[in-house]
Design goal:
- The chain is 36% helix and 24% strand.
- Strand 1 and strand 2 form a beta hairpin.
- Helix 3 packs parallel to helix 4, helix 7 runs antiparallel to helix 8 and helix 9 packs across helix 11.
- It is elongated, with a radius of gyration of 24 Å.
- The model has no long low-confidence stretch (mean pLDDT 97).
- The structure holds zinc ion (ZN) (2 copies).
- One zinc ion (ZN) binds next to loops.
Amino acid sequence: MPVYNRIAEFHDEITEWRRTIHQHPGLLYDVEETAEFVVERLREMGVDEIVEQVGRTGVVGVIKGRQTNSGRVVGMRADMDALPIVEKNDSPHKSKYEGKMHACGHDGHTAMLLGAAKYLAETRNFDGSVVVIFQPAEEGGAGGKAMCDDGMMDRFGIQEVYGLHNSPGLPVGDFAICPGPIMAGTEEFTVTINGLGAHAAMPHLGNDPIIVATHMVQALQTIVSRNVDPIRSAVVTVTAIHAGKAYNVISQEAQFYGTIRTLDREVRAQVVERIRTTINGIAAAYGAEVSIDIEEGYPVTTNHEEQTKFAAGIAKQIVGDARVDDEKLPVMGGEDFSYMLLERPGAFIFMGNGDSHGLHHEEYDFNDEAIPVGASYWAKIAEAAMPAS
Ligand SMILES: [Zn+2]
Ligand SMILES: [Zn+2]
Protein backbone atom coordinates (compact mmCIF):
# COMPACT_ATOMS: atom_id res chain seq x y z
CA MET A 1 0.00 0.00 0.00
CA PRO A 2 1.73 3.23 -1.11
CA VAL A 3 1.88 5.15 2.15
CA TYR A 4 4.58 7.78 2.29
CA ASN A 5 7.97 6.13 2.97
CA ARG A 6 8.98 9.01 5.20
CA ILE A 7 5.81 8.54 7.27
CA ALA A 8 6.41 4.78 7.41
CA GLU A 9 9.80 5.65 8.94
CA PHE A 10 7.96 7.55 11.71
CA HIS A 11 5.66 4.60 12.44
CA ASP A 12 7.41 3.56 15.67
CA GLU A 13 7.64 7.12 16.93
CA ILE A 14 3.98 7.88 16.20
CA THR A 15 3.01 4.58 17.86
CA GLU A 16 4.93 5.70 20.97
CA TRP A 17 3.02 9.00 20.93
CA ARG A 18 -0.30 7.17 20.52
CA ARG A 19 0.41 4.93 23.49
CA THR A 20 1.58 7.80 25.68
CA ILE A 21 -1.66 9.66 24.91
CA HIS A 22 -3.60 6.44 25.60
CA GLN A 23 -2.02 6.16 29.06
CA HIS A 24 -3.06 9.70 30.03
CA PRO A 25 -6.72 10.11 29.00
CA GLY A 26 -8.77 13.21 29.81
CA LEU A 27 -12.53 13.68 29.64
CA LEU A 28 -14.34 16.38 27.64
CA TYR A 29 -12.52 19.70 28.13
CA ASP A 30 -10.11 18.27 30.74
CA VAL A 31 -7.53 17.29 28.13
CA GLU A 32 -4.75 19.61 29.35
CA GLU A 33 -2.19 16.80 29.51
CA THR A 34 -2.84 15.73 25.92
CA ALA A 35 -2.97 19.36 24.73
CA GLU A 36 0.42 19.96 26.36
CA PHE A 37 1.82 16.83 24.71
CA VAL A 38 0.54 18.07 21.35
CA VAL A 39 2.06 21.54 21.89
CA GLU A 40 5.45 20.02 22.82
CA ARG A 41 5.51 17.84 19.69
CA LEU A 42 4.44 20.73 17.42
CA ARG A 43 7.18 22.90 18.96
CA GLU A 44 9.83 20.20 18.31
CA MET A 45 8.69 20.00 14.68
CA GLY A 46 9.12 23.75 14.25
CA VAL A 47 5.58 24.48 13.03
CA ASP A 48 5.13 28.19 12.31
CA GLU A 49 2.42 29.06 14.78
CA ILE A 50 0.97 27.30 17.82
CA VAL A 51 -2.10 28.69 19.55
CA GLU A 52 -3.40 27.15 22.76
CA GLN A 53 -6.75 27.45 24.51
CA VAL A 54 -8.84 27.74 21.37
CA GLY A 55 -12.29 26.51 22.49
CA ARG A 56 -11.02 26.29 26.09
CA THR A 57 -8.44 23.48 25.77
CA GLY A 58 -8.07 23.06 22.01
CA VAL A 59 -4.76 23.52 20.18
CA VAL A 60 -4.20 24.89 16.68
CA GLY A 61 -0.94 24.66 14.72
CA VAL A 62 -0.12 26.39 11.43
CA ILE A 63 2.39 24.96 8.94
CA LYS A 64 3.30 27.14 5.99
CA GLY A 65 4.25 25.55 2.71
CA ARG A 66 7.45 26.21 0.77
CA GLN A 67 5.28 28.68 -1.13
CA THR A 68 2.21 30.52 0.11
CA ASN A 69 1.36 32.36 -3.14
CA SER A 70 -1.88 30.43 -3.60
CA GLY A 71 -3.32 31.95 -0.43
CA ARG A 72 -4.94 28.56 0.23
CA VAL A 73 -5.55 27.39 3.80
CA VAL A 74 -6.71 23.84 4.59
CA GLY A 75 -7.82 22.70 8.06
CA MET A 76 -7.38 19.13 9.29
CA ARG A 77 -8.99 18.13 12.57
CA ALA A 78 -8.35 15.47 15.24
CA ASP A 79 -10.15 15.02 18.59
CA MET A 80 -8.29 14.55 21.90
CA ASP A 81 -10.84 13.48 24.54
CA ALA A 82 -11.47 10.06 26.12
CA LEU A 83 -14.49 8.38 27.78
CA PRO A 84 -15.57 7.62 31.38
CA ILE A 85 -14.95 3.87 31.04
CA VAL A 86 -12.78 1.53 33.16
CA GLU A 87 -10.31 0.00 30.70
CA LYS A 88 -10.31 -3.81 30.67
CA ASN A 89 -7.23 -4.26 28.47
CA ASP A 90 -4.02 -5.56 29.97
CA SER A 91 -1.61 -3.93 27.55
CA PRO A 92 1.54 -2.15 28.74
CA HIS A 93 -0.01 1.11 27.54
CA LYS A 94 -3.25 0.66 29.52
CA SER A 95 -4.83 3.84 30.93
CA LYS A 96 -3.11 5.09 34.07
CA TYR A 97 -6.30 6.81 35.20
CA GLU A 98 -8.95 4.45 36.57
CA GLY A 99 -12.34 5.22 35.04
CA LYS A 100 -10.98 7.14 32.04
CA MET A 101 -10.16 5.47 28.76
CA HIS A 102 -9.45 6.20 25.11
CA ALA A 103 -12.21 3.87 23.90
CA CYS A 104 -13.04 5.83 20.74
CA GLY A 105 -9.53 6.01 19.26
CA HIS A 106 -9.08 9.75 19.66
CA ASP A 107 -5.55 8.90 20.89
CA GLY A 108 -4.91 7.46 17.41
CA HIS A 109 -6.55 10.41 15.66
CA THR A 110 -4.34 12.87 17.57
CA ALA A 111 -1.16 10.84 17.00
CA MET A 112 -1.80 10.43 13.24
CA LEU A 113 -2.40 14.14 12.73
CA LEU A 114 0.79 14.85 14.70
CA GLY A 115 2.60 12.38 12.43
CA ALA A 116 1.34 14.19 9.34
CA ALA A 117 2.32 17.53 10.90
CA LYS A 118 5.86 16.23 11.44
CA TYR A 119 6.10 15.15 7.79
CA LEU A 120 4.57 18.39 6.48
CA ALA A 121 6.78 20.61 8.66
CA GLU A 122 9.83 18.73 7.38
CA THR A 123 8.95 18.62 3.65
CA ARG A 124 6.69 21.70 3.18
CA ASN A 125 5.97 20.48 -0.31
CA PHE A 126 2.81 22.56 -0.84
CA ASP A 127 1.71 26.06 -1.76
CA GLY A 128 -0.41 27.46 1.07
CA SER A 129 -0.94 26.79 4.77
CA VAL A 130 -2.06 23.74 6.72
CA VAL A 131 -3.97 24.32 9.95
CA VAL A 132 -3.87 21.29 12.26
CA ILE A 133 -6.78 21.36 14.71
CA PHE A 134 -6.75 19.37 17.97
CA GLN A 135 -10.13 19.69 19.63
CA PRO A 136 -11.43 18.82 23.11
CA ALA A 137 -14.84 17.45 24.12
CA GLU A 138 -16.05 15.54 21.07
CA GLU A 139 -17.83 13.02 23.30
CA GLY A 140 -20.84 15.16 24.20
CA GLY A 141 -19.26 18.50 25.07
CA ALA A 142 -19.40 20.12 21.61
CA GLY A 143 -15.71 21.05 21.64
CA GLY A 144 -15.84 21.49 17.86
CA LYS A 145 -18.51 24.15 18.35
CA ALA A 146 -16.45 25.79 21.12
CA MET A 147 -13.50 26.15 18.73
CA CYS A 148 -15.73 27.58 15.99
CA ASP A 149 -17.37 29.96 18.50
CA ASP A 150 -13.87 31.12 19.41
CA GLY A 151 -13.59 32.39 15.83
CA MET A 152 -11.14 29.69 14.70
CA MET A 153 -12.19 29.60 11.03
CA ASP A 154 -11.76 33.35 10.46
CA ARG A 155 -8.77 33.75 12.76
CA PHE A 156 -6.70 31.20 10.84
CA GLY A 157 -8.32 31.89 7.46
CA ILE A 158 -9.42 28.26 7.07
CA GLN A 159 -11.12 27.71 3.70
CA GLU A 160 -11.81 23.97 3.78
CA VAL A 161 -11.82 21.49 6.63
CA TYR A 162 -11.39 17.70 6.84
CA GLY A 163 -12.08 15.15 9.58
CA LEU A 164 -11.43 11.42 10.06
CA HIS A 165 -12.66 8.67 12.40
CA ASN A 166 -11.46 5.12 12.79
CA SER A 167 -13.97 2.36 12.15
CA PRO A 168 -13.80 -1.04 13.89
CA GLY A 169 -14.86 -3.88 11.61
CA LEU A 170 -13.54 -2.14 8.51
CA PRO A 171 -10.16 -3.68 7.53
CA VAL A 172 -7.03 -1.59 8.09
CA GLY A 173 -6.32 0.16 4.80
CA ASP A 174 -9.99 0.58 3.89
CA PHE A 175 -11.78 3.92 3.78
CA ALA A 176 -15.50 4.74 3.60
CA ILE A 177 -17.19 8.04 2.81
CA CYS A 178 -20.31 9.47 1.16
CA PRO A 179 -21.46 12.90 0.03
CA GLY A 180 -24.29 14.54 1.99
CA PRO A 181 -25.31 13.32 5.47
CA ILE A 182 -22.75 10.81 6.80
CA MET A 183 -23.65 10.98 10.51
CA ALA A 184 -26.89 11.80 12.28
CA GLY A 185 -28.14 14.85 14.12
CA THR A 186 -28.81 14.09 17.79
CA GLU A 187 -31.42 15.17 20.33
CA GLU A 188 -31.89 14.16 23.95
CA PHE A 189 -35.34 13.91 25.47
CA THR A 190 -36.48 13.61 29.08
CA VAL A 191 -40.07 12.77 30.05
CA THR A 192 -41.22 13.26 33.65
CA ILE A 193 -44.62 11.90 34.72
CA ASN A 194 -46.34 13.16 37.85
CA GLY A 195 -48.92 10.64 38.99
CA LEU A 196 -50.45 10.07 42.37
CA GLY A 197 -48.66 7.80 44.82
CA ALA A 198 -50.60 5.27 46.90
CA HIS A 199 -50.41 2.01 48.86
CA ALA A 200 -49.51 -0.80 46.45
CA ALA A 201 -52.56 -2.73 47.58
CA MET A 202 -54.92 0.21 46.96
CA PRO A 203 -54.11 1.23 43.38
CA HIS A 204 -57.58 2.71 42.88
CA LEU A 205 -56.62 5.51 45.28
CA GLY A 206 -53.63 6.58 43.20
CA ASN A 207 -52.54 7.15 39.61
CA ASP A 208 -49.62 4.84 38.88
CA PRO A 209 -46.95 6.70 36.84
CA ILE A 210 -45.16 3.41 36.05
CA ILE A 211 -48.17 2.23 34.04
CA VAL A 212 -48.28 5.57 32.25
CA ALA A 213 -44.52 5.52 31.52
CA THR A 214 -44.51 1.98 30.15
CA HIS A 215 -47.40 2.79 27.80
CA MET A 216 -45.50 5.83 26.60
CA VAL A 217 -42.31 3.83 25.98
CA GLN A 218 -44.30 1.28 23.99
CA ALA A 219 -46.09 3.94 21.96
CA LEU A 220 -42.82 5.70 21.07
CA GLN A 221 -41.77 2.53 19.22
CA THR A 222 -44.34 3.25 16.50
CA ILE A 223 -42.92 6.66 15.53
CA VAL A 224 -40.11 5.15 13.47
CA SER A 225 -42.10 2.07 12.37
CA ARG A 226 -45.44 3.79 11.52
CA ASN A 227 -44.86 7.55 11.01
CA VAL A 228 -41.46 8.08 9.38
CA ASP A 229 -41.24 7.27 5.65
CA PRO A 230 -39.54 3.83 5.54
CA ILE A 231 -37.07 5.08 2.93
CA ARG A 232 -35.84 7.75 5.36
CA SER A 233 -33.97 7.19 8.62
CA ALA A 234 -34.66 7.89 12.28
CA VAL A 235 -33.92 6.38 15.67
CA VAL A 236 -35.91 6.86 18.88
CA THR A 237 -34.25 4.97 21.74
CA VAL A 238 -35.29 5.08 25.40
CA THR A 239 -32.07 4.51 27.34
CA ALA A 240 -33.23 4.88 30.97
CA ILE A 241 -36.36 4.56 33.06
CA HIS A 242 -36.56 5.42 36.75
CA ALA A 243 -39.43 5.09 39.21
CA GLY A 244 -40.19 3.75 42.65
CA LYS A 245 -38.17 2.40 45.58
CA ALA A 246 -40.34 -0.12 47.46
CA TYR A 247 -42.31 -3.34 46.92
CA ASN A 248 -45.42 -1.94 48.56
CA VAL A 249 -45.58 1.68 47.41
CA ILE A 250 -46.94 3.11 44.16
CA SER A 251 -44.49 5.82 43.19
CA GLN A 252 -45.49 9.46 42.83
CA GLU A 253 -43.22 10.06 39.85
CA ALA A 254 -41.63 8.27 36.92
CA GLN A 255 -39.02 9.55 34.52
CA PHE A 256 -37.50 8.17 31.37
CA TYR A 257 -35.07 9.57 28.85
CA GLY A 258 -33.34 8.75 25.60
CA THR A 259 -32.03 9.92 22.27
CA ILE A 260 -33.34 10.85 18.83
CA ARG A 261 -31.20 10.46 15.69
CA THR A 262 -32.16 11.78 12.27
CA LEU A 263 -30.42 12.69 9.01
CA ASP A 264 -32.44 15.78 8.06
CA ARG A 265 -34.41 18.66 9.60
CA GLU A 266 -37.73 17.54 8.17
CA VAL A 267 -37.68 14.08 9.76
CA ARG A 268 -36.30 15.59 12.94
CA ALA A 269 -39.26 17.98 13.17
CA GLN A 270 -41.69 15.15 12.46
CA VAL A 271 -40.19 12.88 15.14
CA VAL A 272 -40.15 15.65 17.75
CA GLU A 273 -43.78 16.53 16.98
CA ARG A 274 -44.86 12.87 17.19
CA ILE A 275 -43.06 12.41 20.53
CA ARG A 276 -44.84 15.44 22.02
CA THR A 277 -48.26 14.46 20.68
CA THR A 278 -47.93 10.81 21.74
CA ILE A 279 -46.69 11.60 25.25
CA ASN A 280 -49.27 14.34 25.87
CA GLY A 281 -52.07 12.13 24.53
CA ILE A 282 -51.20 9.20 26.77
CA ALA A 283 -50.77 11.47 29.80
CA ALA A 284 -54.24 12.91 29.16
CA ALA A 285 -55.74 9.44 28.74
CA TYR A 286 -54.40 8.39 32.16
CA GLY A 287 -54.99 11.72 33.85
CA ALA A 288 -51.33 12.21 34.66
CA GLU A 289 -49.29 15.38 34.47
CA VAL A 290 -46.28 15.26 32.21
CA SER A 291 -43.36 17.45 31.21
CA ILE A 292 -41.26 16.87 28.09
CA ASP A 293 -37.81 18.34 27.67
CA ILE A 294 -36.08 17.95 24.29
CA GLU A 295 -32.57 19.30 23.92
CA GLU A 296 -30.89 19.77 20.60
CA GLY A 297 -27.55 17.95 20.34
CA TYR A 298 -25.04 17.78 17.48
CA PRO A 299 -26.26 18.77 14.00
CA VAL A 300 -26.20 16.32 11.09
CA THR A 301 -22.65 15.81 9.79
CA THR A 302 -23.12 16.77 6.15
CA ASN A 303 -20.27 16.18 3.71
CA HIS A 304 -19.87 18.66 0.87
CA GLU A 305 -19.97 17.17 -2.62
CA GLU A 306 -16.73 18.53 -4.11
CA GLN A 307 -14.58 17.99 -0.99
CA THR A 308 -15.97 14.46 -0.58
CA LYS A 309 -14.93 13.59 -4.13
CA PHE A 310 -11.49 15.06 -3.42
CA ALA A 311 -11.09 13.16 -0.11
CA ALA A 312 -12.21 9.87 -1.67
CA GLY A 313 -9.71 10.44 -4.49
CA ILE A 314 -6.88 10.95 -1.99
CA ALA A 315 -7.83 7.77 -0.12
CA LYS A 316 -7.84 5.87 -3.44
CA GLN A 317 -4.35 7.16 -4.24
CA ILE A 318 -3.12 5.70 -0.95
CA VAL A 319 -4.90 2.34 -0.78
CA GLY A 320 -6.29 1.79 -4.30
CA ASP A 321 -9.81 2.16 -5.73
CA ALA A 322 -11.05 -1.20 -4.49
CA ARG A 323 -10.46 -0.32 -0.85
CA VAL A 324 -12.41 2.94 -0.81
CA ASP A 325 -16.20 2.79 -0.47
CA ASP A 326 -17.35 6.20 -1.69
CA GLU A 327 -21.05 5.36 -1.39
CA LYS A 328 -21.07 4.48 2.27
CA LEU A 329 -24.46 4.43 3.99
CA PRO A 330 -24.70 7.05 6.75
CA VAL A 331 -24.41 5.94 10.37
CA MET A 332 -26.79 7.14 13.08
CA GLY A 333 -24.06 8.10 15.56
CA GLY A 334 -23.39 11.80 16.11
CA GLU A 335 -20.16 13.76 15.57
CA ASP A 336 -19.37 17.35 16.46
CA PHE A 337 -17.16 17.84 13.41
CA SER A 338 -20.61 18.72 12.04
CA TYR A 339 -20.20 22.24 13.51
CA MET A 340 -17.04 22.79 11.46
CA LEU A 341 -18.82 21.60 8.31
CA LEU A 342 -21.55 24.18 8.97
CA GLU A 343 -18.89 26.91 8.78
CA ARG A 344 -16.69 25.64 5.95
CA PRO A 345 -16.94 23.12 3.11
CA GLY A 346 -15.20 19.85 3.83
CA ALA A 347 -15.54 16.11 4.31
CA PHE A 348 -15.48 13.51 7.08
CA ILE A 349 -14.11 10.04 6.29
CA PHE A 350 -14.01 6.66 8.06
CA MET A 351 -10.79 4.63 8.14
CA GLY A 352 -10.53 0.91 8.98
CA ASN A 353 -9.43 -0.11 12.48
CA GLY A 354 -9.51 -3.83 11.64
CA ASP A 355 -10.98 -6.55 13.78
CA SER A 356 -11.01 -4.60 17.05
CA HIS A 357 -13.70 -4.30 19.71
CA GLY A 358 -16.32 -1.68 18.92
CA LEU A 359 -16.06 2.00 19.75
CA HIS A 360 -16.82 2.79 23.42
CA HIS A 361 -16.14 -0.85 24.44
CA GLU A 362 -14.02 -1.42 27.55
CA GLU A 363 -11.63 -3.63 25.54
CA TYR A 364 -11.32 -1.39 22.48
CA ASP A 365 -7.84 -0.27 21.46
CA PHE A 366 -6.80 1.87 18.50
CA ASN A 367 -5.00 -0.25 15.90
CA ASP A 368 -1.45 1.10 15.50
CA GLU A 369 -1.14 -0.64 12.11
CA ALA A 370 -3.50 2.02 10.75
CA ILE A 371 -1.14 4.89 11.67
CA PRO A 372 0.81 5.15 8.37
CA VAL A 373 -2.46 4.99 6.40
CA GLY A 374 -4.13 7.80 8.35
CA ALA A 375 -1.03 9.99 8.54
CA SER A 376 -0.41 9.54 4.79
CA TYR A 377 -4.04 10.48 4.09
CA TRP A 378 -3.55 13.76 5.96
CA ALA A 379 -0.23 14.52 4.27
CA LYS A 380 -1.69 13.85 0.81
CA ILE A 381 -4.77 15.98 1.52
CA ALA A 382 -2.48 18.95 2.18
CA GLU A 383 -0.16 18.34 -0.78
CA ALA A 384 -2.94 17.68 -3.28
CA ALA A 385 -5.23 20.50 -2.16
CA MET A 386 -2.39 23.00 -2.43
CA PRO A 387 0.09 21.63 -5.02
CA ALA A 388 3.48 23.34 -5.07
CA SER A 389 4.60 24.54 -8.51
ZN1 LIG B 1 -16.94 8.17 20.62
ZN1 LIG C 1 -14.92 9.24 18.43
